[in-house]
Design brief:
Blueprint (H helix, E strand, L loop, with lengths): L12 H20 L2 H15 L5 H14 L8 H10 L10 H12 L5 H14 L2 H9 L11 H8 L4 H8 L4 H5 L2 H13 L16 H16 L8 H5 L5 H13 L2 H10 L6 H9 L3 H14 L3 H4 L1
Length: 308
C-alpha cells in the first residue's frame, strides 16, 4: 500500500474515517486493477489533495471509469468487516470500482474547511452527470462535514432517477443518522412511488413512526381506489404504528391481496402484540389463516428480502 492517509493532519473522528477510507480504497483498487491503473489512482489522489481549485477533482472524477474500469467491487467478508469497523453501517458491497475511486477522490479534496467542502460538494453534484452523482452520493457516509451535506442528500432522494435515489437510500447509514423525521418519511414514501425496495434501507424499523404509517395507509388507499397494486413492504411500516384506519388497511390487504401481499401482512404482524389487530382479524374470521401463514413463514424461512 502506498499510504494515502495523513490527511491534512486532522485528528478528529471524521479525519480517522476519511484516512481509513482512503487506505481501504487504495488497497481494494490495487487488488482489482492493473499496476498502471493503480498508479493513476494514486497520482490522482495526490493531485486532488494538493489542488487549490476544483479543476483537478473534476478531471479525475470524469476520467476515473476509463482509468480503473466499471467492474463490480468484489469484496470479501473481511473487506466488508473492515468497512463496518471503519464506519458503522458502511456497506460498499454493491459499489463498482469507479464509484469507489470517485468517492475517494472527493474525500481527498477536503482541505480542512467544512463550509468550503460542503459548498464545493454541492456545486459539483449540481453539474455532475448521473453516474458521477451516483458515486458521489454513495460516498456520503465517509465525507467530512456530514451535517452540511444534508440538503444535497435530500435533493438526491427527491430525484425521479431511481439509481440516484437508491445511492442515498440503500445500504447507506447517512439517512438514518442525519435525516429529520419529515425527510425520512418523504424518502420512504418516495421509495414506494418509484418502485424501489424498502429492505435495503438501513434501520427503517427503528425510524418508523405513526405519521409515516398514516401516510402509507393513505397511499395504499389511493392505489386501491385506482386499481393499482400495493407493495407488501408498506405493511412493515404500518403494522407497528397502526391506528384504527391502519388496522383496517391491514385486514383489507390480507383479505383481498394476492399470496405475496398476504405473506407480507403476516410477516409484518409476526412479532407484534396488538389487541386491536388481533380483535380485527378475529372479527373477520381471519385469525386462523394469519396464524397458519405465520407458521409457514417460519418453516420456509421467508423474510423481507425474499418477499421483496
Amino acid at each position: 500500500m502506498t499510504g494515502l492517509s495523513g490527511h491534512n493532519g486532522r485528528g478528529d473522528v471524521a479525519a480517522t474515517v476519511c484516512d481509513g477510507f482512503l487506505a481501504l480504497a487504495d488497497e481494494w483498487i490495487a487488488r482489482a486493477v492493473s499496476d498502471n491503473a493503480t498508479s493513476w489512482f494514486r497520482r490522482a489522489i495526490e493531485s486532488v489533495r494538493g489542488a487549490s481549485d476544483g479543476n483537478a477533482l473534476a478531471a479525475a472524477i470524469g476520467i476515473a471509469p476509463r482509468r480503473v474500469g466499471k467492474a463490480d467491487l468484489s469484496l470479501t467478508p473481511n473487506d466488508r468487516a473492515q468497512a463496518r469497523a471503519l464506519r458503522r453501517g458502511l456497506d460498499p458491497s454493491d459499489w463498482t470500482i469507479d464509484q469507489l475511486a470517485r468517492s475517494a477522490l472527493m474525500v481527498a479534496s477536503y482541505a480542512g474547511d467544512d463550509a468550503a467542502f460542503a459548498l464545493h460538494f454541492d456545486a459539483f453534484c449540481s453539474t455532475a452527470e448521473i453516474n458521477e452523482l451516483i458515486a458521489l452520493c454513495r460516498g456520503l457516509p465517509v465525507y467530512p462535514a456530514a451535517e452540511r451535506l444534508e440538503p444535497r442528500a435530500r435533493e438526491a432522494v427527491r430525484s425521479g432517477m431511481k439509481p440516484v435515489f437508491e445511492a442515498v437510500a440503500h445500504r447507506n447509514p447517512y439517512p438514518v443518522e442525519f435525516f429529520s423525521e419529515d425527510a425520512w418519511n418523504q424518502m420512504v414514501v418516495k421509495a414506494f412511488f418509484i418502485g424501489s425496495r424498502l429492505w435495503p434501507i438501513q434501520q427503517h424499523d427503528e425510524r418508523g413512526n405513526p405519521r409515516l404509517a398514516r401516510m402509507l395507509v393513505d397511499l395504499a388507499q389511493e392505489r386501491w381506489d385506482a386499481g393499482r397494486p400495493v407493495s407488501g413492504e408498506v405493511w412493515r411500516c404500518v403494522a407497528p404504528h397502526a391506528d384504527a384506519e391502519g388496522t383496517g388497511a391491514l385486514v383489507r390487504a390480507f383479505e383481498t391481496g394476492g399470496e405475496r401481499e398476504r405473506l407480507s401482512v403476516a410477516l409484518a404482524l409476526q412479532h407484534l402484540a396488538s389487541q386491536r389487530v388481533d380483535a380485527a382479524f378475529s372479527q373477520q374470521g381471519l385469525r386462523g389463516q394469519l396464524t397458519d401463514l405465520q407458521s409457514h413463514l417460519v418453516t420456509e424461512k421467508i423474510d423481507w428480502t425474499s418477499l421483496a
